[in-house]
């Protein structure tokens, strides 16, 4: 196997982009080419898979450690599954809205498919344009 030129480990968007470019390669090769390896005294390359995988998790913005909120309670973590409630409502919990950095008052357009629901965030600037048109009508 040819020696790799040692690079600083990639982080964030750079890491995600490089991993996407290397999608057909093994995870070990991806880790090496993203800089997650060391060379031992004997010249053997050793892949740092744990550091690589942790960097990927961080780059994706996934928070594995539960950090308590200001009031001392941790709350639920996102399971990426919801059920229809007995009153027919679907509730998207705060774990998802926090992950998406949504704020009270953010609006969405709902599109229904046969077996899916799509939410598209309404741009506040578009909303102001719509209100200006309504006011003149």
UniProtKB/TrEMBL annotation:
Keywords: DNA-binding. Residues 79-124 form the SpoVT-AbrB domain. Signal peptide: none annotated. The keyword Cytoplasm does not apply. The keyword Nucleotidyltransferase does not apply. This is SpoVT-AbrB domain-containing protein. It comes from Nostoc cf. commune SO-36.
């Amino acid at each position: 196997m040819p020696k790799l030129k040692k690079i600083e480990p990639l982080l964030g968007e750079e890491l995600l982009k490089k991993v996407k470019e290397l999608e057909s390669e093994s995870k070990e090769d991806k880790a090496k080419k993203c800089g997650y390896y060391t060379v031992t005294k004997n010249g053997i390359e050793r892949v740092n898979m744990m550091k690589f995988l942790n960097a990927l998790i961080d780059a994706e913005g996934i928070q594995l450690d539960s950090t308590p909120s200001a009031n001392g309670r941790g709350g639920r973590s996102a399971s990426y599954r919801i059920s229809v409630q007995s009153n027919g409502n679907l509730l998207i919990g705060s774990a998802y809205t926090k992950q998406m950095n949504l704020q009270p008052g953010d609006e969405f357009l709902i599109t229904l498919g046969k077996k899916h629901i799509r939410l598209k965030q309404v741009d506040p600037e578009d909303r102001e344009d719509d209100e200006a048109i309504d006011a003149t009508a």
